[in-house]
Write a structure and sequence with these properties.
mainly beta, Porin, eight-stranded antiparallel beta barrel, two-stranded antiparallel ribbon, 2 helices, about 60% strand, signal, membrane, hydrolase activity, Lipid A deacylase
């Protein structure tokens, strides 16, 4: 019951944030079925990351000017490793996140190319410290832009630029940017 309520709330939040459709259409029940899983690797200046997760589609989608717009929510679990020349504290960081995502399929869902944008909530522990950069909170936002390609009916390959920061909740707030490569597999 709680998962159902949370996913519906996330769905309505995505609709409201992107102004995608009427509030009544946003109230439709999102899908409860896990759509697929992903594995990604990424790199920031002195930090490497490996992340795995699952995702599920939300019920809202539409066709708009030759493109197909859809939404999904992902949950992720990752490990970051700060290489020794950049570590000033623990070289290992754990990351847990939840992110609603808007995907634009160019030429409709059956076409090969798509782009994405999303912003979610993440917990990073212990605090991220790399050289002279130090996060002041374990809670951080993770926003990304991406471009991807449907390889076949079950697999996607995605190149992402992801930024983590606390959004100015507390200072210092240096943020960190990752370039990530993601493989997604639909069930």
């Amino acid at each position: 019951m709680k998962v159902r309520y949370i996913s519906q709330l996330l769905h309505m939040t995505i609709c409201a944030a992107f102004g995608l459709t009427s509030p009544l259409a946003c109230a439709e029940q999102p899908s409860q079925r896990i759509e697929g899983a992903f594995l990604q690797v990424g790199e920031a200046s002195h930090t490497l990351s490996v992340t795995a997760g699952i995702y599920w589609k939300l019920s809202w989608h539409t066709d708009w000017h030759g493109t197909s717009l859809e939404t999904y929510v992902e949950t992720s679990l990752g490990r970051w490793h700060i290489r020794e020349d950049g570590a000033t504290h623990s070289p290992w960081i754990s990351q847990v996140g939840v992110t609603p995502v808007l995907r634009v399929n160019f030429g409709g869902e059956s076409q090969a190319w798509f782009s994405e944008l999303g912003i979610g909530a993440n917990v990073l522990a212990p605090l991220f410290r790399e050289n002279d950069r130090r996060f002041s909170t374990t809670f951080n936002f993770g926003d990304h832009v991406a471009i991807g390609r449907h390889l076949d009916e079950e697999n996607d390959l995605v190149l992402r630029l992801q930024h983590y920061s606390n959004g100015g909740i507390k200072h210092p707030n240096p943020g960190v940017n990752f370039l990530q490569l993601r493989w997604m597999r639909r069930f």
